[in-house]
Design goal:
By secondary structure, the protein is mainly α. The protein is built from 5 helices and 3 strands; from the N terminus they run H-H-H-E-H-E-E-H. It has a 3-stranded antiparallel β-sheet, with helices on one face. A hairpin with a 2-residue loop joins strand 2 and strand 3.
Amino acid sequence: MGRCAVIVSLLVRLAVVAVLWLAVTELAPSALGYGLVGVPVVVAATYVLAPRRDGGVRGVDAGSVGRGVVARRVRGILVVVGLAGWVLWRSVVGGIDVARRAVRLPRPDIDPRWTTYETRLRSRGARVALALVMNLMPGSLSARLDGTRLDVHVIDPALDVHRAIADLEGRLARVEDAFG
């Protein structure tokens, strides 16, 4: 694997794991120190658990890195960063809405329900990511993933959870396409 390919692979994995860490910890200052240790450890583990079979970056001959491949990886990183920003924004806005509903007087403005969503994501990994990242969206909680069927608990049926999941699904599909 060429030096540039190794650097690109490392940067992509670092970006993905760091963004996931920041999203999961909701940018908690107390978690940043752990992230400085945890993110590199997880990235190292990804190389042990998911090594490249061909010894190179997908779509690249060993020892050669084309501009198109580097540009594709950069676009992939931008797609992941865009996904992370969208998730963080939705978490903030949704969190405010959930807080408002929970403290509304004389009684909370909630009516919990179950709903089902059929995903069109191709890979199991992308479907699992959908179920996990969806949990960061306030007002909903994924409870079970069975093939393409996702069972979701919603704080109120008035929330358009299907649209939110579809938006997230579309963004994950772009990530899947960028790195698939």
